[in-house]
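Hi R.,

Here's the chain you asked about this morning:
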Amino acid sequence: RAIYEQQRPTPEDGDALVGDTDLGALSPRALTWLATTYSIAGAHEESDRILRDAMHRHPQDVMLFFDYGRGLAARGRWNEALRMYARATAIRPDAGGIWRMTGLALAELGELENAREALRAACAREPEYGPSWVDLGEVLVRMELADDALEAGVRAVDLMPDSDAAKSVVDRALDLGAGDGCADRERRPRGRAGGAHRGVPARAVGRA
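And here is the predicted structure, written out as tokens:
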């Protein structure tokens, strides 16, 4: 993709790469690269055909399903993307990144409770990956679960102290009324406007 940012390929470039090559002899990564060439060129049907054939030939290659899912999601085909993510998580249930993308797709479809559970799974599997905590916080804000959103936001800020997205989750959770039960309101965590989440050590913040 970095190469193609300099000069976008055309469908003919993909055809030239294929030539007389037997696609069945190519590795899953080579097939993904070829499909990406067609996709960036706008030849999505050919890209999809290559990936479907690759998945049929390599049914246990998690990255084929994951990459195809991301490509479908980029085109707004959320339900199809979810089917690919489901196949990927069946192969690698421990991969937090797949659960994260599942949660994002579910959130796009408005299935917030399922999105929350998928993002919780992502955070449980990769607890040091800040963007998953941000995404979880965003969903919890949409669900108006203020205290849970605050916990997710504080965890995200702890992992990514310079992230405006993480601080925004904290701010909006506070706007929803998170922490109103605190005896000392001045010690509630603060987001962008109030600096660091003082008064709440990161280690004391439970998993959302």
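One quick note: The longest helix spans residues 44-57.

Cheers,
M.
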